[in-house]
Design brief:
Order of helices and strands: HEHEHEHEE
Structural class: alpha+beta
Strand content: 25-35%
Radius of gyration: 15 Å
Distance between the termini: 24 Å
Helix content: 25-40%
Largest sheet: 3 strands, mixed
């Protein structure tokens, strides 16, 4: 399908398991030819997990670091960098095929790093 060919030809994709989305996006930014940053404005998270994590932390439990983008997501998603037009098309085609995809950030001029913007949009993902 189109989206598989486009992702394979983009040369920029990574799963984000052990380092979380922030760690993997930083790794990708470091190896770009241009001085760019990845700005993440949206975090897809399993439905209810942000509230669960906050309540657990309030009671002295473990910090899963979901909102910092550094959670060790063993079954994390796939981070793909495409032009804005290709990204819109990719999301539409993934959804047409029964998959899920979101535009979670932008590539901007910078110093080869990544950051999660203040108060990111949270998408509760149900499975």
């Amino acid at each position: 399908q189109w989206y598989q060919r486009r992702v394979q030809s983009s040369g920029i994709n990574a799963e984000y398991g052990g380092f979380g989305i922030l760690g993997h996006s930083r790794n990708l930014a470091e190896f770009q030819k241009e001085d760019v940053d990845f700005e993440i404005h949206t975090l897809p998270v399993l439905a209810g997990f942000v509230d669960f994590s906050k309540k657990l932390l309030e009671k002295g439990g473990r910090n899963f670091r979901i909102l910092t983008g550094t959670a060790a997501e063993t079954s994390g998603g796939l981070l793909v960098c495409l032009s804005p037009d290709d990204a819109e098309r990719y999301v539409a085609e993934m959804r047409t095929e029964g998959g899920t995809a979101w535009i979670i950030g932008e590539v901007v001029r910078g110093s080869r790093t990544s950051r999660i913007l203040e108060d990111p949009k949270i998408i509760d993902v149900s499975y």
